Amino acid sequence: MSKADLSLAASNIAAQLHWASSVITQSAPEQDSGLLDSKILLCYCLNCEQTYLHTWPEKNLNDQQLQQFQSLVAQRMAGHPIAHLIGYRDFWTLRLQVSSATLIPRPETELLVETALELTLPVNAKVLDLGTGTGAIALALATERPMWQIWGIDKSHAAVQLAKSNAKLNALESVDFAQSDWFSQVEEPLFDLIVSNPPYVEQHSPYLHQGDVRFEPLSALISGKDGLDDIRFIVAQAKQYLSDGAYLVLEHGYSQDIVIRSILESNAYVDVLSVSDFNGLPRVSLAKFYRK
After folding, report:
1. CATH topology of domain 91-289
2. Is the CB of residue 246 less than 8 Å from the CB of residue 289?
């Protein structure tokens, strides 16, 4: 982005939005999010809601605001995720801090939360969130089921600290976050529900070179040749930690549902089914486990 490019835009809100939307779209036309990205970044710089942009389109940015906005636009053009640029992502009813240490919470993961909330569980159910990252799933569940006892674990120390920070930020400090490589440090003997959004991307997937994932930790994305190594491990090991008739709920790729149901069934889980998102794509699978 040259100085000449910047000089084409006047310093008022309308002109800056028009300029930013154009250059962001040109840098990544397949994403078709230039205008929305521009509005989010400008609201961040102006500390305002989007309605303000429409109400005061002729208002000029001061030099500091202009410099900050144009710097953020340049970074967005280079592919940096919006969430990393502004430092947070809204998920469920929460505002969550994000960092390069974890995956950015995505709207499709709300389907996992919705699925878990529809289950028939004890009022004070014990729930484990495996690979909690920002704490998104555990904290979303806690907002809806304050009587549940919820633990979130992650093998990344930085992720655990971020989840704890998000719990404090959202006044949900009853959720217990700890560091553990899957079940290695889990002390609670039995849970009524185990949920997870584990790594499920194939190691050679072209998806890894697109969009926001280029800036996210590969360890939270890749899971072996077919993307299912971690899911196989979780399904097999979770049986030791599920109470009688408890549920295991997993998020996965939209083309993985058939093989995941097979993995669950071969591990003696019952009532196995997959749940589709609003686009009709199966993104969550769940099952019950009975102890013999």
Report:
1. Rossmann fold (3.40.50)
2. yes
Q: Any long-range contacts for 171-176 (C-beta under 8 Å, 24+ apart)? A: 172/139, 172/142, 172/143, 174/142, 174/146, 174/150, 175/135, 175/138, 175/139, 175/142, 175/150, 175/151, 176/150, 176/151, 176/152
Taking only the tens of pLDDT, the chain with its 292 residues reads 444 354 446 899 999 999 999 999 988 765 678 999 999 999 999 999 999 999 999 999 999 999 999 999 999 999 899 999 999 999 999 999 999 989 999 999 999 999 999 999 999 999 999 999 999 999 999 999 999 999 999 999 999 999 999 999 999 999 999 999 999 999 888 999 999 999 988 888 787 777 778 888 888 888 889 989 999 999 999 999 999 999 999 999 999 999 999 999 999 999 999 999 999 999 999 999 998 7
How do the domains of the chain map onto residue ranges? 3-79, 91-289
Using CA atoms, how far apart are residues 286 and 292, in angstroms rounded to an integer? 20
Locate tokens 């997959």: which residue?
274
CATH architecture of 3-79: Orthogonal Bundle (1.10)
Residues 6+ apart with CB under 8 A from 7: none
Asked if 24 and 46 touch (Cβ cutoff 8 Å), the reply is: no
pTM: 0.90
With 0-12 CB in 10 A as exposed, 13-18 as middle and 19+ as buried, what is 290? middle
